[in-house]
Amino acid sequence: MPTVAPLDLDGHCVATAFIGEVPYFALADGSVHRLDHGHKTSQANDGLLCAFYDAGSDRLLTGGEDGKVFSIGAGGETAVVAEAGRKWITSVAAGPQGALAYAAGRSAWVVLPGGKVKEFQHPRTAEGLAFAPKGLRLGVARYNGATLHFPATESKPVELEWAGAHTGIIFSPDGNFVVTTMQENALHGWKLADGKHMRMTGYPAKVKSLSWSVKGKWLASSGAPAAIVWPFQSKDGPMGKAPLELGTRGNSMVTCVACHPTEEIVAIGYNDGMVLAARLADAKEVLLRRPGKGAITAMTWDRSDRRLAFGSEAGDCGVIDISA
């Protein structure tokens, strides 16, 4: 039976991460908590809106209402690594070789590996950010689609159009697909080789959490009473294929998903604080955590593939050890 080490905090948990082997929990007030031989706290943004774990540099990047991007590293050390003046930073992302991106209003900035900063403006608000897995390419979710920039060159951006408000973006691990979350209850995808569209609809709620399975064969998503898991094994992705539905609970809503780093298993967090693990091959479920105070808003696996850090909108956080 998995064991849970709880950490009761006061506030909405925006992100979880393991830096080294230490679990971190970033709250909306800008405080960053860690379980490192006891409960310890650092302070980052004055009002934290977004966070992203930078695996390449083993750090947590945060952005917020103070117009600053913070880097939180081992030992809870915090440093300002970028600024956008008085604008609220609403999205951050990490790229190859230490590159990072952040968005505020209609602008997205990229800090290149050498430290040079480039700004890209858009007709409407730059919502979500993501770097491609190969090469220095930045995807920006925006109104009526997504834009792909090539910050290290003077190449023209690639425009991916689809009507509606696109709020988040993610590349497939092989770089062949881009998927966006939308203001409506749907996902939209593009196959980059030929621009083919993928409409992923039928959700009863907005999709706020996405996670790729190991090797990118599946894309798990929140926004329904089950984790909706789309197949991406074929060259055309999920076009014409039905998704898996894992961990169905009729009266609950999935609010967060996190695929296991090495096994085809997905951790599923619900709006009542419950956490399940489900196996993609046969839909077998294991209860990881009983219901708590608030909806699960963040989950991260550690590098040894046995611990899962979780956080909720009510601040009840903790670490689940599945090897116990």
Describe this protein's structure.
The protein contains no helices and 30 strands. 0% of the residues lie in helices and 53% in strands. It is mainly beta. The strands form seven sheets. A six-stranded antiparallel sheet has the order 14-15-16-17-18-19, with no helix packed on it. Strands 1-30-29-28 form a four-stranded antiparallel sheet, with no helix packed on it.
Entry keywords:
324 residues; mainly beta; 0% helix; 53% strand; Quinoprotein_ADH-like_sf; WD40/YVTN_repeat-like_dom_sf
List the strand order in the largest sheet: 14-15-16-17-18-19
Low-confidence stretches: none
What pattern of helices and strands is seen along the backbone?
A: EEEEEEEEEEEEEEEEEEEEEEEEEEEEEE
Question: How much beta, percentage-wise?
Answer: over 45%
Mean pLDDT: 96
Reconstruct the topology from this structure:
Elements: E1 3-8, E2 13-19, E3 22-27, E4 31-35, E5 39-43, E6 48-54, E7 59-64, E8 68-72, E9 78-83, E10 91-94, E11 100-104, E12 107-111, E13 117-121, E14 129-131, E15 138-149, E16 158-171, E17 177-182, E18 187-191, E19 196-200, E20 210-212, E21 218-221, E22 227-231, E23 244-246, E24 254-259, E25 265-270, E26 275-279, E27 285-289, E28 296-301, E29 307-312, E30 316-321
Antiparallel strand pairs: 1-30, 2-3, 3-4, 4-5, 6-7, 7-8, 8-9, 10-11, 11-12, 12-13, 14-15, 15-16, 16-17, 17-18, 18-19, 20-21, 21-22, 22-23, 24-25, 25-26, 26-27, 28-29, 29-30
